Amino acid sequence: MRARLTFCAVALGALAGCIETAEPSGPAEPPPPSDACGASQHQRLVGQSSAILAGGALREARRIGPDMAVTSDYRPERMNIEYDENGIITKISCY
Q1: b/e burial code for range 1-33 (CB count within 10 A of at least 16 → b)
Q2: What pLDDT does 58 receive?
Q3: pLDDT of residue 87
Q4: How does pLDDT run across 1-30, given as a tens digit for each residue?
Q5: Rounded CA separation 80/58 (Å)
Q6: Separation CA 54–CA 93 (nearest Å)
Q7: Do 3 and 10 meet the contact criterion of CB atoms below 8 Å apart?
Q8: Structure pTM?
Q9: What is the DSSP-derived secondary structure letter of residue 81?
Q10: CA–CA separation, 7 and 71 (whole Å)
Q11: How far is it, in rounded angstroms, from Cα 40 to Cα 49?
């Protein structure tokens, strides 16, 4: 009985040495910039008043003002238009 326990302990020890441990990875890298939503076509609006967005083709875009809470889900086909406290468009991108 004692020999069997000793054998099992040695076998378990040998198996434990075979197990690979994964090293923890750092935070996930953000995806590379995408133009799936066509933001590059509207870069001329950066620096202009966000009032220019009323109606028109960009009415479906997500508008993000200063200190505005938004979801962090990544959707490359969604256009995001960011503007500052003065209502000036600061960024147009897909995410």
Answers
A1: eeeeeeeeeeeeeeeeeeeeeeeeeeeeeeeee
A2: 85
A3: 96
A4: 555 545 545 555 555 555 555 566 666 666
A5: 10
A6: 18
A7: no
A8: 0.63
A9: E
A10: 56
A11: 18
